[in-house]
């Protein structure tokens, strides 16, 4: 069974259909890309999957469970991590604490036991710190583990955000425009990390406006235009699809 | 919190650093937030503890003791509020109500039902916490100004209830004759004993808060303050965390209220109004948000300021207002935070200069 199933989703804003009967599947251990011109409904779809908004009709299944009416934190708790289009690092914490914040659900500790710093809390915190440092090491951020997260450059903050999602040990990670605002070298760096994650068995679902990156790393690509799926398949097929080319050219003309 | 504009050292910082140098010996650094690695007890903290323990013995003026007792009670309240305001990033203008609930619980239990004060002390915190958990769920869905107004409304409703239910609370006159705090037959009946009582309770709650903010819950508080969406994305139940921190800060206020009732031996509604709520918020903001020493320092500062200004009679309020405005203009992040940041950059500047000089040699 597919890890994530989106079934006939409809979402309207003031009578305008942002998403019209969108259905797709994400298989375990693959990278799925979602592309499309501006205003195609990519972000809306992501908001619906992560529970920040509710669809007007249709259903979403994650790990075989229907999550359509779940709250965002409940969906995260099921094992779905995500990053944001505008980077949302926790700026009031250190780099390592950002990663440890991602471990929230895996750590035990109630109000009283944390306040009294009981032995098992102490042990758990120690192990969490060690594990967070290992994650930072993998991401190449260990050198700055103590510095405030707000002092990292944007590219590193995006990687830190990815690290925070990884710390949850999720089954699926949603990446919302990971390349936006990054320099070409930073994009390259990020692509390598993402590819590495896939090799480690992670499932990723990427929304990206920046087509090159998705075409390079995704196993399968879905193209969305005006709230409808117009093409789906491996990158080399989608790239040659006439409807896709048309949709992107239309977007280009509208931009100019 | 560190703002980007304050990242580099400016030469004119020297000028207002010099007179404040002395203060820096008392005020802690702002690095509390960022120093995961150094959250164990440091030598400096032992000095603070020593100062708190020895000061009233060296300076044996009863007026000083009394002021420090008040400052200690306010500090407990401000400490609780700083968890809510400084860590979780929420605003409350109704904390005086929880303080009042604590005071009235102790007053009623001890005078009507002859409860031992020690039990009433715990019951007060529980009562305040229950009240907070009841109003927390609906109120904490609001944000920013709306939350401020809702909590303010709660504070006013509490006052009306207290004034009107004369049977239980004695109405506007209040309740008199609350016994001294006593524990196992030992009565805290002098200012000096009360000093150790309040500062002992403060120390315990301070340690509790310090542990809390370095645990996963502390990170959750900060995450809620930084970005609720990001907090949800890692599975943090935002409304549960907000209610939790609200309940904890209300329980702190309950403890403080109970001590206040025992020490003043009265409880009347005039003490728990909006003015008092804003005073506590001022203590937290002036002391510095996002670190736990800030509220303690802020409450000592404002308690003294009010005492000194009390000599100027009718001029006291205008002067008080002007001083607050000036402090907020020059120390918008709180005295502790601002000084700490300045000192860190100053030290950094010196260290770099030294390195440069050595490099030249």
Distance between the ends of chain A: 44 Å
Structural classification of chain B: mainly alpha
Overall structural class of chain A, as computed from helix and strand content, comes to alpha/beta
CATH structural fold name of the largest domain in chain A: Rossmann fold
Q: What is the CATH class of the largest domain in chain B?
A: Mainly Alpha
- Helix fraction of chain A, binned, reads 40-55%
Structural descriptors:
heterodimer, A: 256 residues, alpha/beta, Rossmann fold, 6-stranded mixed sheet, 4-stranded antiparallel sheet, 10 helices, B: 361 residues, mainly alpha, ABC transporter involved in vitamin B12 uptake, BtuC, 2 domains, two-stranded antiparallel ribbon, two-stranded antiparallel sheet, 16 helices, disordered N terminus
Short characterization:
Chain A is of the alpha/beta class. Chain A is built from ten helices and ten strands. In chain A, the strands form two sheets. In chain A, strands 6-7-8-3-9-10 form a six-stranded mixed sheet, sandwiched between helices. A four-stranded antiparallel sheet of chain A has the order 2-1-4-5, covered by helices on one side.
